[in-house]
Amino acid sequence: MTVSATSVHFDEHTMWVDLTDGRTLRVPLAWFPRLLQATPAERNKFELSRNGLHWEGLDEDISVAGLLAGRGDIAKRTESAATTRPAVREVISGKKRYAGAKQQGLDSRHRDTDGQIHHKHGNTRVGTLRETYGDDFAAGRRSDMKLENLLKETGAKSLTDFRKNYNKRA
Questions:
Q1: How many domains are contained in the chain?
Q2: Is 112 part of a structural domain of the chain?
Q3: Is residue 108 part of a domain?
Q4: What is the C-alpha separation between 146 and 40, in angstroms, rounded?
Q5: pLDDT grade, residue 75 (50/70/90)?
Q6: DSSP string of 104-146?
Q7: Which long-range contacts (CB under 8 A, 24 or more apart) does 82-85 make?
Q8: Is 43 found in the same domain as 90?
Q9: What pLDDT, on the 0 to 100 scale, is given for residue 108?
């Protein structure tokens, strides 16, 4: 089943998107500079489609899938908005769930601006890294060990340093 928007409304700094599955997304207008700069009347002239939202007068299109992935207006976002992007908050059945720090998707995983998970952080587990780098990655270490602890234990400066200098095959 495809999740679609059923309604959209705004406050001074936020766009609220109600979805067909009952969720409501709270999205900062700073993610979409055209909407941020628009008047309230311009913001309220939108069309809903099966895949997203469209503002003809503003030449703005936003996909529901992009919102669910935590992506803003990547192509048109100002550099300052890109570095200070606040978290999305999702409201589910009256309970609030925070997505976390800047540039995270709704699943609380860190994502690059194209929405892909590329950069590994210290809280990534060795078991997850083995899915990417093979079963012999950090051989002899527990799969629930965090990357930051692995780097401290081995003295490696980064994941790349660990892979080059500390993860040699026997």
A1: 2
A2: no
A3: no
A4: 47
A5: low
A6: B-TTS-B--TTS------TT-BHHHHHHHH-TTTTTTS-TT-B
A7: 82/113, 84/30, 85/28, 85/30, 85/31
A8: yes
A9: 47
DSSP state of 48: E
The first and second tokens of residue 147, run together, are: 């990357």
Report helix, strand or coil for 77: coil
Structure tokens at 133: 């780098």
68 and 24 both lie in a single domain: yes
Q: Which domain covers residue 13, as residue numbers? A: 5-98
Average confidence score pLDDT of the chain = 75
The full length of the chain comes to: 170
161 in a domain, yes or no? yes
Q: Please report, for the domain that includes residue 66, its CATH number.
A: 3.30.2020.40
pLDDT tens string 92-145: 444 444 343 344 444 444 555 555 554 556 678 888 888 878 888 888 899 899
